[in-house]
Amino acid sequence: MMRNILLAFIPLFAAVDAVGLLPVFVSLTQGMQEAEKRRVIYQSTLTGGLLAVGFVFLGRAIFRFLGIAMGDFLIAGGAILFCISIIDIVSPAPETRRPSADLGAVPLGTPLIAGPAVLTTSLAIIQEYGLPATLIAIIVNIALCGVLLRLSGVLLRFLGKPGSRALSKITSLLLGAIAVMLVRKGIVDLLSRL
Prior knowledge:
This protein is mainly alpha-helical. The model has no long low-confidence stretch (mean pLDDT about 85). It is built from 8 helices and no strands.
């Protein structure tokens, strides 16, 4: 069970990309008081966690209703993840935005914490590692993201903006590799149905 949790944790860690989220979080919460930042972190992790866990339970039912095979979703999700990873790798630094009241829910909770990468990866790894390991990996990753956001000031001082961007690019590269794996598994799944 521990092995499955660890194996489920790794692709989700790359999908959440908490380290890459640090500069965005700092940019979005610039000028906020500590209490406001804590509220935003709580709101974003709660939103992301509920969305990811809810999708794990409802995703397959939605697929059945729409007639989507798991292979279809793996290929589509892999293609989207690959695009996201390419955009993350080649994109310039995020621009500073003005904070809003629902900042924790949107854009931090979703799509930044629990976006297409996390939802696609979550459904894909259920088949590999099982529901309990996937749920634990989701919860641990989102909790870890909350801790990293809480420590954002310290971590950015330690890593510096260039260091956090470099680390983010590495996780984006891993996300691209995971995307290719999802497409490959989707093709195998669809071919096995012929």
